[in-house]
Amino acid sequence: MNSSTPEYRRNATPFLHGQETETVSRVLAAGQYGHTEVTEEFERKVAAFLGVPDAVAVTSGTAAMHTALLAAGIGPGHEVVVPSLTFCATIQAILACGAAPRFIEVAPHTLCVEPDAVAEAITPATRAVMPVLFGGRAIDLSGIRSALDRQGIAVIEDAAHAFGSYSGPARVGGTGDLTCFSFGPVKNLTCGQGGMVVPRTPEEAATIRRLRLLGVVASQAERQAATSYHVEAFGLRYQLSSINAAIGLAQLPGFKTTEVKRQRLWRAYRTALHGAKGVTLVDVDVDHTVPHLFVVRVADREVVFRRMLAAGIAVGVHYPPNHLQPAFAQWRRSLPVTEQLGREILSLPFHQHMTEDDIHHVAATLKRATGNGR
Ligand SMILES: *Cc1c(COP(=O)(O)O)cnc(C)c1O
């Protein structure tokens, strides 16, 4: 593929705002590639952007969820309520703690969990709920919040899709929940690879900082000035490299462009597909969301998928249900709504290099592929 390839033929690609190369070059020349001041500057800038006192940078969204779960005390013998319809990383993070996923259904019109489904899935072993903010849409569990609190059940948000979205007046991450972001290659904001946890308390922040640095508690300067270091507890190699942090730092000032462009593209699809028979939009609440995906539901998805590929459109599926995956067979239960959704969902190409002309072309192709206008 080269630069003359139409954007609708591409799967999502990272969007650079312009300063990334220069910022990374400066870090490369400085010669410190581990967790450095640059990483800490990125943490401070993200915290300020979200309006929270603190944020802890890690290597990935998966690492963010793993450390958040551990910091919330999740371990063997515990159950974590989670939608089956998510990226497999959410489930692997639960298994990494030795806990068990309790798969639940999502609402077909949003692909997000609803409070009733969460409440019904709770057992005496439940210690956490992981809502997945599908497509970037905020999830409101306030109706069952006090019941969850009473039972000692933590809410840990998989907000990998939702950087920049709003939950009421606050940004997602700024509502007091334990929130996990991904800054992977094609997320709303990218570090190349990276992730961030918004902790609920200073103690939780300290625990995650210890977990991400192999259990060692000391600043870079302290470690360099001493003949030893203290390994205080269990830990992992999860710190965010200054090289990756530099990419994120360069992205933040351009985020308004991301917000505006992604909302405009999402609305362009909605308008272009208005009235298309047999095509149902998955709603992201675009007015409050920085959309990450554009998903529709169609009957005969396998046929439509192949027709779109044959027409040169880079469609995808987010996601095959996890409760049907061989790795998670032990925790399988019957989830008819999710199984039906798994046969209907189709993601249209959605990334910031696309133009509104690209959107119109994809929408017209989808209408033909679904038998509209015949
Ligand atoms: C990307 C993603 C993750 C994992 O983030 P990584 O940074 O790739 O580890 C988790 N959940 C969802 C829904 C995602 O889209």
Detail the topology: elements first, then pairings.
Elements: H1 20-30, H2 37-50, E1 56-58, H3 61-71, E2 79-83, H4 88-96, E3 100-104, H5 115-121, E4 126-129, H6 142-150, E5 154-158, E6 166-167, E7 170-171, E8 178-182, E9 195-198, H7 202-212, H8 220-224, H9 242-251, H10 255-272, E10 279-281, E11 294-298, H11 301-310, H12 336-344, E12 345-348, H13 356-369
Parallel strand pairs: 2-3, 2-4, 4-5, 5-8
Antiparallel strand pairs: 1-9, 6-7, 8-9, 10-11, 11-12
Helix pairs in contact: 1-9, 2-9, 3-4, 3-7, 10-13
Overview of the molecule:
The chain has 374 residues and is of the alpha/beta class. The protein has helices at 20-30, 37-50, 61-71, 88-96, 115-121, 142-150, 202-212, 220-224, 242-251, 255-272, 301-310, 336-344, 356-369, and strands at 56-58, 79-83, 100-104, 126-129, 154-158, 166-167, 170-171, 178-182, 195-198, 279-281, 294-298, 345-348. The chain has two domains: 20-254, 3-Layer(aba) Sandwich (Aspartate Aminotransferase, domain 2), CATH 3.40.640; 255-369, Aspartate Aminotransferase, domain 1 (Alpha-Beta Complex). The protein contains 13 helices and twelve strands. A seven-stranded mixed sheet has the order 1-9-8-5-4-2-3. Strands 10-11-12 form a three-stranded antiparallel sheet. α1 packs antiparallel against α9, α2 packs parallel to α9 (242-251) and α10 runs parallel beside α13. The radius of gyration is 21 Å and the shape is globular. The structure holds pyridoxal-5'-phosphate. The site of pyridoxal-5'-phosphate has 14 residues, from α3 and α4.
